[in-house]
Automatic annotation (TrEMBL):
Pfam families: Sulfotransfer_5. GO terms for molecular function: hydrolase activity. This is HAD family hydrolase. One of its GO terms (biological process) is carboxylic acid metabolic process.
Length: 232
């Protein structure tokens, strides 16, 4: 029976590197942000490559989530999700048929990074409320990006154990380059990951949060703290 892993991450995290890590397993197939097209269609947002994204994925959330539960030729089906793509109208019932997991990051670092690409992010843009909603309803293992970068082997081994899949040291390295499974938006966002062959080294420097966005860090911190208390 296939283990379906729904990994929920906010933006400005190591979610694509984590997808590379799972994609390096011999027993795993991956899918990249399968709710992105629905998110763009529903919100009307103009993201880079919008038309290509809408053409590449199901726009109806019902069709997108049905595909996440369909048979796949692998023991593990890793689903990389951006938590803010889980809009209120998207049904939640399918979440009970997957093994939910959560990739979190200190909000100060998320906000500092996000501010460089979007001037005024909101709390919903960062995905913390949605992560907490899913965690409270369905549970699942939580890993902090800082822990993954400080100790990739130990953190990933604990994650695999919590998901009920075998630990594969091959998850620590992967060939550089693009993947057929990468979303069509890869040319706009994945340059660093395409150049990588493993997880980057942990950077301990403090986050440089713009003063105008410190309120957002304060708003997100209690949600992050709730999830962080369950980190592996």
């Amino acid at each position: 029976m296939t283990v379906r892993v729904a990994m929920w991450s906010g933006p400005r995290n190591i979610s694509t590197a984590m997808m590379r890590s799972f994609g390096a397993r011999a027993d795993t197939v991956v899918v990249d942000e399968p709710l992105y097209a629905h998110y763009l269609a529903a919100t009307g947002l103009e993201h880079p490559g919008r038309e290509e994204i809408l053409a590449s994925q199901p726009v109806r959330w019902q069709e997108a989530t049905e595909a996440l539960l369909a048979p796949v030729p692998a023991a593990v089906f890793y689903q990389k999700h951006m938590t803010h793509h889980l809009l209120p109208q998207v049904g939640r019932e399918w979440l009970g048929a997957v093994r939910n997991a959560f990739l979190i990051r200190d909000p100060a670092y998320v906000v500092a990074s996000y501010a460089k690409v979007r001037g005024e992010p909101t709390l919903a843009d960062l995905g913390y409320p949605q992560q907490v909603e899913i965690f409270r309803a369905y549970g699942g293992p939580v890993v902090d990006a800082a822990d993954v970068l400080r100790d990739p082997a130990g953190t990933l081994e604990r994650l695999c154990g919590a998901l009920g899949i075998g630990w594969d040291p091959g998850m620590l390295a992967w060939p550089a380059g693009r993947r057929d499974t990468d979303g069509v938006w890869a040319p706009h966002w994945y340059a660093a990951v395409e150049a990588s062959t493993g997880f980057a080294a942990y950077d301990p420097r403090p986050a440089d949060v713009p003063p105008r966005l410190r309120w957002l860090v304060e708003a997100a911190t209690p949600l992050y703290t709730e999830l962080s208390a369950h980190s592996l």
